[in-house]
Fold this sequence. Notes:
Oligomer: homodimer
Bound molecules: zinc ion
Radius of gyration of chain A: 16 Å
Number of domains of chain A: 2
CATH architecture of the largest domain in chain A: Orthogonal Bundle
Largest interface: A-B, 38 and 38 residues
Order of helices and strands of chain A: EHHHHEEEEHEH
Helix content of chain A: 40-55%
Strand order of the largest sheet of chain A: 1-5-4-6
CATH class of the largest domain in chain A: Mainly Alpha
CATH topology of the largest domain in chain A: Arc Repressor Mutant, subunit A
Low-confidence stretches of chain A: none
CATH superfamily of the largest domain in chain A: Winged helix-like DNA-binding domain superfamily/Winged helix DNA-binding domain
Number of helices of chain A: 6
Strand content of chain A: 15-25%
Distance between the termini of chain A: 28 Å
Amino acid sequence: MTSGSxxxxxxDHQRCVARLVRHAEQLCIKAGVRLTVQRLAILxxxxxxxxxxxAYDVLEVMAKQGQRAAPxxxxxxxxxxxxxxxxxxxxxxxxFIACHHSHGSNPVQLLICKACGGVGxxxxxxxxxxxxxxxxxxxxxxxxxxxxVTGVCAHCCAA
Amino acid sequence: MTSGSxxxxxxDHQRCVARLVRHAEQLCIKAGVRLTVQRLAILxxxxxxxxxxxAYDVLEVMAKQGQRAAPxxxxxxxxxxxxxxxxxxxxxxxxFIACHHSHGSNPVQLLICKACGGVGxxxxxxxxxxxxxxxxxxxxxxxxxxxxVTGVCAHCCAA
DNA sequence: TTTGTAATGTTATACTATTGCATTTGTTAT
DNA sequence: ATAACAAATGCAATAGTATAACATTACAAA
Lengths: 159, 159
Ligand SMILES: [Zn+2]
Ligand SMILES: [Zn+2]
Ligand SMILES: [Zn+2]
Ligand SMILES: [Zn+2]
């Protein structure tokens, strides 16, 4: 992934999720961390759509699937998934989105469609650089930029 | 205000708050909206520091001042203050910061010091432009970018 | 004054997230 | 193998953030 994209409504989502799972497995092996059944289950739930998913939405789905769990369980799994880069937190929505990419340690910019709820990603080093530079001029040492852009996606613009 | 700044710890804060109040009064007159006592009181509380302030922090202060209020009261005032540009919401902290500037409709980038909790502002049209352009290439029409950068401010870097 | 709108009050509730401690599971070293 | 340790999970309670619904009051214009 070089620059970014917004999920197309017509894509083969079965395949999309399958790829996400493979990606997660490989990534966790390489990082030497444990992708437990529970963590994978929660990743699948979040990855089951390209829309922002709340922690309690995940809980609901788990309950429907018969694997009832406590909130803290979900939050712990989310912490893990975020730490390894398989999930992004969306601060402005108190929600989460599965990440299908490999950003390494590069910050990401999220595109959030107000109309359909879809979430896309950009990876713009220029933006990160500009922020670091401007902050640096004020003596501010940047740790982690949160960039979340609300708007309307191409598909919803048309309609 | 052209580009940005981070609040200096040593500044004359009395004067700083007084300026904020004048700014608020003028702005509300010009906009033809009502800056009620309550709204002003809440703005003053938020503006009483350059750190992020939570809604329930505001409530606590109000209680101490004898003007006990319900959460919804604070949230309504905050909605108002945000809508006229006197307060910025900090999504990543679920908190708020008073705005001493006049951005017009230009988006702002917030600098949040992890060490002291101080919050500064940047106004970087280049960042906004870069986001709009990159989003536009994906057919995404930008409404409102949320840019919040955590890190360590100059003062805390030294220490 | 009447009338309509904006602001506030009141109560309850919804939604989001963490703490603390007990237990289990998996890994590593003997 | 098994002891010892660390990571992950289970469980219950609670903390923290935000809104809904409806009644009332304050203000401004007609
Ligand atoms: Zn998909
Ligand atoms: Zn991503
Ligand atoms: Zn859309
Ligand atoms: Zn500002």
